[in-house]
Amino acid sequence: MHRREFLVFSSVTSLLFVTGCGGNSSSRNSTNPAVKTLALPIPKLLKPTMKNGIQHYDLDIKEAKHTFFEGKLTDTFAINDSSYLGPTLLLQQGDRVSINYKNNLKETITMHGHGMHVPPTMDGTAHQAIAPNQAWSPQYTVNQKACTNWYHPHTMEKTAEQVYQGLAGLIIVEDDESKALDLPKRYGVDDIPLVLQDRYFANGQIDYSPSMREIMHGYTGDTFIANGAIEPTLDVEAKQIRFRILNGSNSSVYELGFSDGRKFKQIATDNGFLEAPVSISRLRLSPAERAEIVIDLSGDLNQRLEFKDYRHSKTFMTINVSKSATQVTTLANKLTTLDPINVASAVRTRSFVFSGRRGSFQINGKSMDMKRIDERVPLGQTEIWEVKNNMGMDHNFHIHATHFRLIERDGSTSNVAENEKGYKDVVFVPANGTVKLLIKMIDYTNATVPYMYHCHFLEHEDRGMMGQFVVV
Ligand SMILES: [Cu+2]
Question: Do residues 85 and 98 make contact, with C-beta atoms less than 8 angstroms apart?
Fold first, then answer.
């Protein structure tokens, strides 16, 4: 039934384009083969090889062919033996790791560990480019608490297209605290990784062809995919189910929820657990943000519900509660203790103002320049970073190196939602909105190799909405 709805929606979109009413100025052709009906794919957990006390994770980045549609192979970029996205890395706090990226593509890439607290030389920005047939192996000790992170290209002016082609994967960090909590922890059974994206396809091929308007507003898609499948089905046990959700789309903001409108608990933000679960019925996620949620399906045996994006009225997947519980988990009222927010300890405020016109974007009036260091941030000093979006369109703001706390929206602490009070590394900054962040650099000084801050709407990042800072 959902397939038919999807096809009808696609043809309506085409019709709107043909008649010129859709506001879509590209020459996109939305005619595609029938959708392949699939179970939600679960990315494999990548097994490391141990050498001299270091866990080596080998990631081969290559061209691939993936099945989104019946009888059609779609050209993609992928990692190892997957044909879209890559395997999940499961790391423990304190692990010594080497992530070995081999670039088998015909173009230069970089691979950034988004959310990982690592030295700038290991960060995988445009300063650590990997040419075709070359490898790059960042090594570090996992230096942070449990969270759900991800890896993706950060290539100068090419990030958007490379991610759209399929390059991304999850990095799960666990620690003693996360392991001690009575949470769903069976990967792919009741602890479900979920990479949400939207894509345009033309004749069954991924169509990355943004118009000027789509560069300005960000490139989206009319087809919603979860872990690389179009509207898949997930069979689960009738129990608490944990989802580790990544908005892996280029520029779409989602308002996620379940078709029966039920409440669920958010337990973690980008960089770790919330102090206590927060009960919500809608979860807003902008590009690159992560959230872990727990939904209680213990009374729903033989029921089906849809996991949806209410912002675009689209279904990501159908959940089929088809199995009896083989384990019971009980969500605690207290998950962790966060550092207290002490705004008075801030020694300075930095200001970041967004602007843009005609397909180029700036922060503080400047487009990204790899040769320019925009900010020098002293180690160990608490700062306020104020981000102002004076534009009539949405953006967000991502800072590398460490996490931050959101302390104000639009001039008031009371505008900060309960589920945004954890450690974050991406914050949504809607049209004409302002946010204040509390941040402190705690490791890894390097006077010459910078980290980045940027809008994570990838079309904006690629066209200049990014700056560089060093920790000194
Ligand atoms: Cu933006």
Answer: no
Under a CB-based contact definition with an 8 Å cutoff, are residues 343 and 378 in contact?
no
Which pLDDT value is given to residue 358? 86
pLDDT exceeds cutoff 50 at 23: no
**370 CA distance to ligand 1 centroid (A)?**
19
pLDDT in tens, 256-292: 999 999 999 999 999 999 999 999 999 999 999 999 9
pLDDT value at 454 more than 60: yes
Residue ranges per structural domain of the chain:
1-336, 343-471
Q: Do domains 1-336 and 343-471 have the same CATH topology?
A: yes
Strands 314-323 and 233-237: parallel
* Assigned token pair, 445: 């000084």
Question: 267: part of which helix (H) or strand (E)?
Answer: strand 264-269
Q: Which of 252, 114, 118 is nearest to 172 (CA)?
A: 114
* 455 CA distance to ligand 1 middle (Å): 5
The DSSP bridge partners found for residue 389 are: 354
- Quick one: pLDDT at residue 29? 63
Angle CA(32)–CA(104)–CA(39) in degrees, nearest 5?
40
Averaged pLDDT score across all residues of the chain: 94
**Distance from the CA of 286 to the center of ligand 1, in angstroms?**
10
Answer whether residue 116 shows pLDDT above 90. yes
Query: Is the CA virtual torsion 340, 272, 77, 62 positive or negative?
Result: positive
Q: Please give the residue that has the higher pLDDT: either 6 or 90.
A: 90
- Output the CA 129–ligand 1 centroid distance in Å: 23
CATH topology for the 343-471 domain: Immunoglobulin-like (2.60.40)
State residue 13's pLDDT score.
37
Degrees, nearest 5: CA angle 268-271-276? 30
Rounded to whole angstroms, the Cα distance separating 211 from 213 reads: 5
User: By C-alpha distance, which of 448, 451, 446 is closest to 467?
Assistant: 451
What is the four-CA torsion angle of 430, 435, 438, 443, rounded to 10 degrees? 40
Assigned CATH class of 1-336: mainly beta
Decide: helix, strand or coil at residue 177.
Answer: helix
Question: How many A from CA of 431 to the centre of ligand 1?
Answer: 10
- CA of 453 relative to ligand 1 center, distance in Å: 12
What residue has token string 């703001």? Answer: 397
Cα separation, 197 vs 246, in Å, equals 9
Rounded to the nearest angstrom, the distance between the alpha carbon of 460 and the centre of ligand 1 is 5
What's the pLDDT tens digit per position in 35-87? 999 999 999 999 999 999 999 999 999 999 999 999 999 999 999 999 999 99
Instruction: Answer for the pair 236, 322: CB distance below 8 angstroms, yes or no.
Output: yes
Q: What does the DSSP 8-state code read for residue 327? A: S
Q: What is the pTM of this model?
A: 0.93
Amino acid at 103: N
